[in-house]
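quick one: flavin mononucleotide bound model?
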Amino acid sequence: MRKTPFKIPSKALFLAPMQDVTDLRFMQAVNAISSPDFYCAEYFRIHESFELDRRTMEAVNSQVLSAPVVAQFIGGDESDIAKAALELSKRAPRLLYLDLNIGCPVAKIYRKNAGGGLLRFPEKIKCIVRVLRDNWEGVLSVKMRAGFAEFSEFEHLFESVMETPPDYITIHARTVAQLYRGKPDYSIIKRGVELSGGVPVVANGDISSARKAVEVFNETGCAGVMIGRPAVRNPWIFRQIREFLNGEEVFNPLLSDVRAYVQNLADNIICGGGKILHADSRLKKYLNFVALGVDPEGKFLREMRLARGMDSLLRVCDKHLLDNGNAEKKFSLDAYEGICARPNCEL
Ligand SMILES: Cc1cc2nc3c(=O)[nH]c(=O)nc-3n(C[C@H](O)[C@H](O)[C@H](O)COP(=O)(O)O)c2cc1C
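yep, here:
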């Protein structure tokens, strides 16, 4: 049935899918700075009465990025997923890549036995992957966590995914129970590589700098790395990883470069329309991450959170990223410790 041969680029770099973050506007802002090899769009929620979300369709159909976009499904019923795969092929005829999410730890998803909830039902995973293989002619991948409650579940779950081997598998090296906080265990990824029989494995979880990415490549033998939150903070990370791998000097952006990135995000949000009334809140979602590399005391983070309205928010950005000699200061390549991007979230 499958018609698309897949060869993963060497040391492939992926932008992770992030709900409410990796829309087309954000991907364009990243693309203007340094492109990964693959962009992963937010998931389509697939259930009995699913509709393929318009904004996400815009991202997966887009031809404006320098790298292909991967679409993602999250759902728990194989016949709904089969229908959705057929509909997606019709509505996005040029889309090649489809991923199945079996890792999402959000309670309202996993309790419905979708996302990370599927890790409690290995037979269901086998069935869904098989159905997707039969109903999607493009490249098929699976993004999984290391287990639901325990790392010891990993091997059995990995074998279930591999019963109908996907074209590549991404492993977020945490369990669902750990949410986004606990420490990833990269030895799980190494084990995945050993068990994969040559199917490329992509490593994910806290790959926060070029140095860390190279350590994970060396430690695990993975074929690629996927980067989420660190790429929102530092979208230069893809270029920096390539430079590090080539033994070149790694580009260190200045705070003035960060200000230009923020302006690009702001302009894209405003162009996106729709939510323009809440444009400042939307920009703050990104700034929560960016702020972790701006100053070690978290002053920018605190002040930007208090700003009301886009003009006032951008003035706070000017103050911390441009004024009084700040423009020439280096952006920290690692997040400063002790400040938290999203204190009220599980993330
Ligand atoms: C705000 C947010 C939204 C996310 N949405 C998705 C999603 O739609 N699909 C998915 O597979 N993972 C999603 N994730 C998980 C990320 O893709 C990634 O696995 C996780 O953040 C760990 O990688 P990181 O440490 O590089 O951020 C999300 C994570 C965050 C922080």
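The radius of gyration is 20 Å.
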